[in-house]
Known about the structure:
Blueprint: H1 3-8, E1 13-15, H2 18-30, E2 40-42, H3 60-63, H4 88-97, H5 105-117, H6 129-151, E3 155-156, E4 166-169, H7 177-188, E5 193-196, E6 201-204, E7 209-212, H8 227-237, H9 245-251, H10 254-257, H11 266-288, H12 298-301, E8 337-341, H13 346-351, H14 358-369, E9 378-381, E10 388-391, E11 394-397, H15 402-419, E12 423-427, H16 429-436, H17 443-446, E13 450-453, E14 456-461, H18 464-469, H19 473-493
Parallel strand pairs: 1-2, 4-5, 8-9, 8-12, 12-14
Antiparallel strand pairs: 3-4, 5-6, 6-7, 10-11, 13-14
Amino acid sequence: MNAAAKVAAGQPLVVSSFPEWRDAARDLLLHGVAPELVTWNEHGTLDADLFSGAPDSSSSSDNAPAGVVPVEEAPPPHLPPSLLRIPRAFMDMLQSAACCRVPDRWAFLYRVIWRWQHGEHDVQSPADVDGVKLHAMVKAVRREEHDMHAYIRFRERPLEAGPPQFAAWFEPRHDVLPQVAEHFRNRMGGVTWMIGTPEASVMWDGATLHHTGPLMSSAADLDDAGEALWLTYYRSIFNPARVNAQLMQSHIPSRFWKNLPEGAIVPGMVSNAELGARSTGQAQAVGKKSGFTIPIAPADAQPERQQPSKLDECRRCELWQYATQAVPGEGPKRAQIMLVGEQPGDQEDLAGKAFVGPAGKLLDRVFEAADLERRAIYLTNAVKHFKWEPRGKRRLHKTPVQREIEACGYWLEKELATVKPTVIVALGATALKSVLGNGNAKLAESLGKAIRHEGRWVVTVYHPSYILRVPDEEAKRQAFNVMVEGLKLAKQLLERPPEEPPA
């Protein structure tokens, strides 16, 4: 019996893996079965009671949920199979979220794919009520994969015990064992190994991965003769003068310590450090040093790191994790005037273009009043990713901090080197700080003025969003006039010699 027939008969759908859910969801979509009509269960979660017997097939038509026609009597599928097209990236996201152990994961994923199939493509956006949960599930699964890569410890088994040569125990919060097994298969080559968890096990025989049920109960089932050598090495490199217990706990969550070999000896070493070993170890280390201390700036001591070549690959700050996409600048490659805003807004983040929202429409009015054409000006932002905070279903703008401005200064410098503008118009305080490279720059001190900076004129005006926010009509008019006069001044500066100050 297929999935739609089971729902029509009033039966729950019992699944335990993403392929099973995918096949069931496909059949339900073909027959137009709405999410609220489907009951999903994991294997082993059905409650047994007096009424849990098999349904009577003869009365399935009478017991069908409202709105569901029994499949045996139904017309052809609601949709032709050719219309069930899901983008690969979206399907990969659903497959990753399916590994997240939340009670309603199968029902939630079906609601998501139902909405997508009915044209609600915003369901994959972090601003959507289901989209934010979907992203959170994917993030939790990827975090668990990272933790399993980092904190799993293989122990060597005795040769007489036979394969596998190495074994490990881990207690994951989510169903990430298959993905992690692929990672270690690629990393460990032909060496045989096994990973055990409370729910399942996986074994690599050098050629094939074998997935089975649980074969171990805890890390105590493992015995490693070489572990004593590792603990001796760990004690020898432990420096009590530099121990920081809080930092260790923040880097490695407490749930991982019990399965780490060094977890049994770390508490004692930390305790000894606090009882006096810290000062003793530091004194001995200092006494062995000789020579002179050469002062060096922290920035110069950092190793050179490869910089991103594409804006979409930028990870220089954390804002990329929460934005839909990076928003590049746009305009002529050799524009004489460059406008630098603060950051993309909600609509810019979704569209991938600068100044297309309400602030962009107001900016068009300013261009018209200043007798400038938008297509002749290069438009960009000091920060390329949208920084926001949730308010209900809306994403509200949040001002970037100085470290985020400095991180995105790398891209603004590349734009300046490529476009080579004669005049830069800074829209607001954030843009002014970025252009001048000065976190202490004040908007009030430079508003409407022309400043000479690194061979270019810099004119500062209000950001269009300020005019949209200010409640007083007179203040709106004055701020609008400041923007118009600032752009007129920028236009005049194009015709002035660099040494001649503006009137």
